[in-house]
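Holo prediction — NAP.
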Amino acid sequence: MHTELHHEKKGNELKNKTIGFLGMGIMGQPMARNLLNKGFHLMVWNRDADKCLPLVEAGAQAETSPAKVVAAADVTFAMLADPAAAESVCFGPEGVLEGMTPGKAYVDLSTVDDFTSKNIAQAITESGGRFLEAPVSGSKGPAENGQLVILAAGDRSLFDELDSAFDALAKKSIFLGEVGQGARMKLVVNMVMGGVMGAFCEGLALGEKCGLDAEGILEVLAAGAMSNPMFAGKGPQILAKDFAPAFPLKHMHKDLRLAGELGAKTGQYLNISLSALSLFAEAMDAGLGENDFCAVSKTVSE
Ligand code: NAP
């Protein structure tokens, strides 16, 4: 009872504040919309400004630069493609740092490496701001339904204050300690996912070469210990050759690359994951980057 009252109070406090959101991509748009639906006053920015329009129609205010969003907001979230995007939005002209002043907070939800995240964290804290890295597990569907898993690290007091915002985005928020641990956790999870997707596509391709019925393979996998939501969701899409992006292949390639770099830095040899990286690199070379990551099945079967 006490905890519930406490959370409600914190939620209301945050509701009187302004939230900024940078990056209206596949993930950013529905996440920003969920914050808006929860009643937060929202300011948005995207490099391609047109992608802000649906949010503006829904009641958000668009700004013309990250600096302007950060200057107007109490807490700014960012959901950007990769380390280069996260750094350019933070450090670039009219970027986050130009609007950052003591008392403000910045939450980077993008999947980046630990080095990038620490760089951004240092710059924000040196400007007097508070920082949280918060990459998410879950794809377009969970982003739309507010069912992501947030892997946060950095400023603990900020994490606690954001619980009502995180409630709008996620079914679970986990605090992992110092900046870098969220990024590393996210890379570990996606590295496993990339390797499993590669093996899944190879299994389907091999089965078909042997004359096995592809739907039968999915049925047998679903009945056993390897049954999982990814096979259940992506399996039928692979068979239907429906590669509309929920998680773009280029981002899985990026995540495998960053996980490979983490392996090299820590001295952990990654045999299967490096094979998966070269498979996804081949898919990138074949021009499949904008497709869903399950389009790697094309590379496997061709
Ligand atoms: P996306 O649809 O490709 O969106 C990427 C966003 O980054 C867009 O807003 C894009 O702006 C912006 N961007 C790219 N380069 C930029 C630059 N140099 N400067 C400024 N903005 C830049 O990607 P997404 O699927 O939403 O994913 C976003 C992040 O979440 C990635 O790190 C991804 O790995 C991670 N993630 C994705 C999923 C998923 O299932 N999709 C799940 C979990 C985590 P423009 O619109 O102007 O190009």
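READOUT: Confidence is low (pLDDT under 50) at residues 1-12.
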